[in-house]
Amino acid sequence: MKKYIFSFFFVLSYFVLRAQQNVSALLASGIHDAKLFTYSYFEPASQGAMYSISNGWYHSANVKKPLRFDVKIVGNVSFVDKEHHKFRLNAVDYEHLRFADGSLSKEVSTAFGQNDPEIEVYVDYETLTGTEREYFNLPDGFGEMGTKLIPNAFIQASIGVFKGTEIKGRYFPSVKYDDLETSFYGGALQHEFTSWIPGSDLLPFAVSGIVAYTHLDASYDFTKTELIEGENQLIKANLNTWMFAAIVSTKLPIINFYGGLGYVKGTSNIDLKGTYHIQTGVIQNETVVDPFGIEHEIGGIKADLGMSLKFGFFRLNADYSFQKYQNVSVGIGFGI
After folding, report:
1. 283 falls in which pLDDT band (50, 70, 90)?
2. Comparing C-alpha atoms, which of 155, 168, 257 is closest to residue 205?
3. What is the helix, strand, coil percentage profile of the chain, to 5?
């Protein structure tokens, strides 16, 4: 499960480890250019991760009676469509980065694409002996590995608290895996509107609303990789999302169907921290501290369709989310 909760951050660390020359060269092209490229390169990974962690919050509109509960393991997988494999890099937007073949604009790989063939760029910079030029290839993404998914998994629990109201929590403990450390948590409140209708227990369906918050913190320490001379070199990220939805479901004894219509909004912040001694490029012989941070946002409508199975204490559900990064969510656990 560690691998899946870390999935978003593996994308970030993959970029850092992809090639020493690429990382140092991007910083050598100047902070502005490095930040601009990194923003577009990571955008689908960041946005897809926010949509992914926002799913799996419910499997019924019929909330639990007070003190009834369930506990389950939830797994989400968001899909990265082809349109998010590339972004257009316009050289005129960059201060120093230029295409080696003289092009002014090209489609280049995001974290989920692949440059085939490789795309060579260069940076011109001044030295004591005149103008020098450094060539390097733009980094590929996971495309060459055939990976187009953003998975995550966590433990989630729900309990009825009072009439028509249920609270939920999701959690993955703060753990460290090699040089990667992360923590994950969230909470939600669901209220069943039909519980206020006289005789609602006889209705064959339920309608409710839910508000949910999810947070992911992560840091990756790559100082010992010695990609660039320096100290305390980290990538730090935090993701925060809100999900609001109206839910309707059947109220059958064993198999039920549910659907929801809602809205997801969120913000991610990715910061490059630490000290970097730049040896070449437009900021050669400079020491840069905490070079830059980037922020991505999401905001969009989502619709869910799913099915749940209840057999004794056993619980199983699966649903599909129609959203910018479409998602499959599966939950398995027990409850009363």
Report:
1. confident
2. 257
3. 20, 55, 25
Q: Can you give the pLDDT at residue 20?
A: 43
Using a pLDDT cut of 90, give the percent of the chain over it: 61
8 has pLDDT over 70? no
Give the DSSP per-residue string, 246-302: EEEEE--SSEEEEEEEEEEEEEEEEEEEEEEEE-SSTTTTEEEES-EEEEEEEEEEE
pLDDT at 7 over 70: no
CA distance 189 to 202: 24
- Whole-prediction pTM value? 0.90
How many angstroms separate the CA atoms of 111 and 218, rounded?
18
Q: How far is CA 320 from the centre of its chain?
A: 18
Judged on CB neighbours under 10 Å (0-12, 13-18, 19+), 184 is: buried
SS3 215: strand
Tokens, residue 7:
């999935």
Please report, for the chain, how many H helices and E strands are present, in that order: 4, 16
Q: What pLDDT is stored for residue 93 in this prediction?
A: 96
Q: Within 10 A of 204 (CB to CB), how many other CB atoms are there?
A: 7
Residue 44 gets which letter from DSSP?
H
* Rounded Cα–Cα distance for residues 137 and 118 (Å): 7
Distance of CA 130 to the CA centre of its chain: 44
Structure tokens, 199: 């005789």
Percent of the chain with pLDDT over 70: 90
